[in-house]
Amino acid sequence: MSSPASSKVHGQWFNIRFTPDLATGERLNIGVGLIDMHGGIQTRMLSNFERLRCLYDGRVDLDGLHFLIETLDSYWRNEGHPSTSPIANISFSALKYASGFSVAEILEDLYGETVILDPSVVTTRGDQEVIADR
After folding, report:
1. Helix, coil or strand: residue 65
2. What is the pTM of this model?
3. N vs C: which end of the chain shows fewer Cβ within 10 Å?
4. Cα(first)–Cα(last) distance of the chain, in Å?
5. pLDDT per residue over 2-61, tens digit each?
6. Which residues contact 30 (CB under 8 A, 6 or more apart)?
7. What φ, ψ does residue 5 adopt, rounded to 5°?
């Protein structure tokens, strides 16, 4: 049986960012990715766009965003992790080290910390836990 330390996974993580309007350059975190120790890419992406809809009131094509996410996922399966995005409205943060007991745990923790547009994410403010509407 392996010890807890040896069962840890590690890799390089990055935020996946969406720029709704290229002219303004505003970037919103819509997901996280992890390049695991074997070079595989795992992601956790925003799937509920209600907060985006509230922020941009119809000025963002949400069906188009779904398509961009699917295109990016397909690109990764075929090409691997690009240093730059093949899609102008999608960008990536710099790679950073992450480790944990599972890829799912790492992605969930990073997603909860960095993707504030998800209405189901639990956050803390001071000593209080705030649960957003699901």
Report:
1. helix
2. 0.79
3. N
4. 40
5. 444 556 899 999 999 999 888 888 999 999 999 988 888 899 999 888 888 888 887 888
6. 16, 17, 18, 45, 46, 65, 69, 115, 117
7. -65, -35
